[in-house]
Amino acid sequence: xxxIFTCFIAIVAGWPNLAPITQTSGIPxxxxxxxxxxxxxxxxxxNAMTVSGNNKENGVNFSILPSExxxxxxxxxxxxxxxxxxxxxxxxxxxxxxxxxxxxxxxGILTAIISAAKIExxxxxxxxxxxxxxxxxxxxxxxxxxxxxxxxxxxxFSN
Length: 159
Description:
By secondary structure, the chain is α+β, with helices and mostly antiparallel strands. It has three helices and eight strands. Keywords: Signal.
């Protein structure tokens, strides 16, 4: 039992933290543009909703079709208003190759870790309510794919 628990801790600790998004010019300014402009069915959010404490690290769970994974370079998480769909803030991004040793090629559930500081920032920007987190996969330049892949999860805040 101890061995299984140790392996589980090692896997959980291996999930990448989202790095800051440095270039925001290509990010859609409304969630409807994300939803309508992307290719569906390749990337899927594991949950429809998740709850986070105000100053606690949290993760966004998603899966990607293993046969399509090599066509996409990275995954970005972007916050939008739940009601209006308006852009709130970039959350972060990570390259998909950081998941290579964590089961991406086998279709497992992947997690992108959001820092406690970013959770606290989103909590303030939404007045302690909720934000829609869009998970957006951008294509590799040499893959021939022209559309991003996306899904979303609602992040509700709890004090």
